[in-house]
Amino acid sequence: xxxxxxxxxxxxxxxxxxxxxxxxxxxxxxxxxxxxxxxxxxxxxxxxxxxxxxxxxxxxxxxxxxxxxxxxxxxxxxxxxxxxxxxxxxxxxxxxxxxxxxxxxxxxxxxxxxxxxxxxxxxxxxxxxxxxxxxxxxxxxxxxxxxxxxxxxxxx
Length: 156
What we know:
It is a single chain. Helices cover 22% and strands 45% of the residues. By secondary structure, the chain is an alpha+beta fold. Helix 2 packs antiparallel against helix 3.
């Protein structure tokens, strides 16, 4: 098996959505891995915000200076702490896309000092995979899918 095939098979972003009370607010959980780096995190979002992000991902071509972005976390203004950040833009001139992923979790269980787990990575992918992810992400928020997957792919 080729090394790039192994990397592509393990390189992905998986999103899931949990919303219980019908107010349109839900918890978006994101797991991402690429080239040996991985993270898992989540944040509360208005479902409409996630649907708007999915719509931005359908644009072709994406503009390098105007990435499609989604950010959620705790606090506001200067006190805002991002827990989930996704930003997609072109990388290079071959049609390669990069999904910048930021995942952060502050953990405190009362038995040990509080710790912060954090990962930042860029998942390389393609327009085809991004389009599939965008449709699946919309289905996820609308309740007709269990998860949405953005597969990694490195163009040669």
